[in-house]
Amino acid sequence: MPRGSTAGTRRSGSPPTLATVAQEAGVSRQTVSNALNSPHLLRPETLARVRRAVDSLGYSPNRAARNLRTRSSHLIGLRVDRVVEGTANATMDRFLHSLVESSKDAGYHVLLFSSGVDAGDGADNGLADDGRAIDGYDDLLRSTAVDAFVITDTYRGNPQAGWLERRGAPFVAFGRPWDEPSATHPWVDVDGRTGVMLAVEHLVERGHERIAWVGWQKTSFIGEDRRTGWTDAMHGHGLATSRLSARGDDTVDFGRRAAHALLEKERPTAFVCVSDTVAMGVLHALADLGLRPGQDIAVVGFDDSIAAQVVPPGLTSVRQPLEQVAREIVHLLDKRLSHKPIEEPGRLLAPTLSVRASS
Amino acid sequence: MPRGSTAGTRRSGSPPTLATVAQEAGVSRQTVSNALNSPHLLRPETLARVRRAVDSLGYSPNRAARNLRTRSSHLIGLRVDRVVEGTANATMDRFLHSLVESSKDAGYHVLLFSSGVDAGDGADNGLADDGRAIDGYDDLLRSTAVDAFVITDTYRGNPQAGWLERRGAPFVAFGRPWDEPSATHPWVDVDGRTGVMLAVEHLVERGHERIAWVGWQKTSFIGEDRRTGWTDAMHGHGLATSRLSARGDDTVDFGRRAAHALLEKERPTAFVCVSDTVAMGVLHALADLGLRPGQDIAVVGFDDSIAAQVVPPGLTSVRQPLEQVAREIVHLLDKRLSHKPIEEPGRLLAPTLSVRASS
DNA sequence: TGTCAGTATTGGAACGATCCATATTCAGTG
DNA sequence: CACTGAATATGGATCGTTCCAATACTGACA
């Protein structure tokens, strides 16, 4: 394609500005701005002329200038916390990618940050967890570096949510405000209870009756929510749950010990687990005992992590619709930022079951 | 702490600006700016007064204004490409987090973006891979939204690298310029060959002699590099390699088929794999045959993915020093952006071996 | 032809920081 | 005490965009 003659004032090396384009198209600065932001204001002929100039010069509006003037950055902040290794929770990768994708479609970019504590500063500096919880958020807000936040770790009792809400900062949470029913901020979450019910139904269909639960401690809202999926589905089929439940940490080791204990005393034929991490622990126990997952004992996990996908013989797992979660989050964020009314503050999405050879 | 009296001009609601702070401290705008950017220019007493005002007002410089004036955003762009599921490659999570950490220490933030193609637009629109390769980069550069890029997927023949280099855009690559030895851009990479040698040494120490290689196709530079680690270490110990090697895709299924074929014909006692994904395939094959990993047959993977950490009984794997990689990348980026000389354009880092029960 | 309402276009001011050149203060010296 | 050069502090201009209010254009109608 032919390159238009560049305007005389343009110093090569520095990118074209509105003024450059205006000169090229023979219109004023403001008209070029309108062509980009409110094209309906221009006569079609003028619009075409400006667009041609924009294309031929390869013009893109300077972000910083636009941000300064409009007092918005079109950036969404997301804090990535320390990666916990040895845990099968690989939701982050998938969620992050979906969030970036959805954000792009809505004209936003995702800015990552971490808590303000220096990486090298490993020593405990006496800061309570609460003190760290809002680390990083404040600074980004004050410097107007981001327009809004997405917060993901609402499970520990969400101090950020409360803090951000009080501060009037726009944000959407991935996760319900479990411990604060009065919270009014928008959120998106996955219905873990329903997910576990899917798992139990699936196992019942395969003829299982003694289905054990391996979950998290009672203090975990998410853990208890998922657990009700197990109890409700079991009772719905007239199956007993007593003595078939174990609770502990989200570690492989806990899953293994719990499975050993349950297998020895209660002889379940299937395990439904609160997470893939715990489920991997159950698989460890089966390996210890020479039992074949899927043939001798069925196992179902939660998260559909990569580990679930690749572990022999394949771990059946509840899959969160993270792509949809991301889309909903951006949707809510967009509404919040454009001051449109948000009819329902919370959206609860249904997970699916990825069936593999372990069940 | 006592809140200083806010300056009269400040409209409550909008954050404080340089002018607000200046008025509060009784100095000029420029002096406040200097207090933040060149404190050595101020008399200690003045500096203290300004700092007090900054603190009491909770002032943070407006990013957009600073970016506009300094023509830099202090943002580092990283493209996150489509997540390939069913692959154990979970390096991204760890690397991303490390990159965010290191960037913060150097005063940068990480901006994520994706290729320009709309998420919904799944249909093949006839664009060649090359056309997509620079998608997104151009726009961010032209709008001066980021100062530099980190590129990570140099293995497909790196069209971005060449393009960015020609465009004069600052970037650092995670990965060597395999197919373009003339490239002069800075890069950081992990010495895969050495990693695999570690694995072989470890197995030889345990008494193994028939150690098989399950790798990628010959066209993969990374795959071949890692493979030389196997051949070199084997030959160094006077061990034969012929007929003990298989090559294929980075899939669980390939690993499984390769292991079956090798076990049937060549009776290796150990497998060294080019990736954890392939290694998981080998574990599948062992499960098929009722062989116990670590006891009957040893297996070593590459990447130290989460799957390797949680799969029973634990998969020994070569671990890339991603934290160090991130630190080096940011270090090089920082040099590049501050126009300091870069003595060596490439840094090759040594991996370690995470030993688990599979070997 | 003149008026008018509506549409299309424009120039100046503003966003909040840093760059630059200049003005002021300070300490040391003849 | 005046002079000097270094150390500090300042005001105006500027980055590139959008907001705002005002102007120039258009065609319809009396």
Helix count, DSSP H or I runs of 4 or more residues of chain A = 14
Fraction of helical residues of chain A: 40-55%
Low-confidence stretches of chain A: 1-11, 118-130
The end-to-end span of chain A amounts to 59 Å
Q: Oligomeric form of this entry?
A: homodimer
- Sheet with the most strands: spatial strand order of chain A: 2-1-3-4-5-11
- Describe the main β-sheet of chain A briefly: 6 strands, parallel
- Envelope shape of chain A: elongated
Structural class of chain A: alpha/beta
- How much of the sequence lies in strands of chain A comes to 5-15%
Task: Give the rounded overall mean pLDDT of chain A.
Answer: 89
Largest interface: A-B, 62 and 62 residues
Order of helices and strands of chain A: HHHHEHEHHEHEEHEHEHEHEHEHEE
Annotation, overall tally of beta strands of chain A: 12
- Rg of chain A, Cα atoms, Å: 26 Å
Which tags fit this structure?
homodimer; 359 residues; alpha/beta; 6-stranded parallel sheet; 6-stranded mixed sheet; 14 helices; elongated; DNA-binding
Can you describe what's shown?
Two copies of one chain form a homodimer. Chain A is α/β, with parallel strands linked by helices and 359 residues long. The first copy, chain A, has 14 helices and twelve strands. Chain A has helices at residues 18-25, 29-37, 44-57, 63-70, 91-105, 129-133, 137-142, 159-167, 192-205, 221-236, 252-265, 276-289, 306-310, 322-337, and strands at 75-79, 109-113, 148-151, 171-174, 187-190, 211-216, 245-248, 270-273, 298-302, 316-319, 346-349, 352-354. A six-stranded parallel beta sheet of chain A has the order 2-1-3-4-5-11, with helices on both faces. In chain A, strands 7-6-8-9-10-12 form a six-stranded mixed beta sheet, with helices on both faces. Chain A is elongated and about 85 Å long. Residues 1-11 and 118-130 of chain A have low confidence and may be disordered. The interface between A and B is large, with 62 and 62 residues. Chain B binds a DNA duplex (30 and 30 nucleotides) through residues 17-19, 27-31, 33-34, 37, 41-43, 46, 61-71.
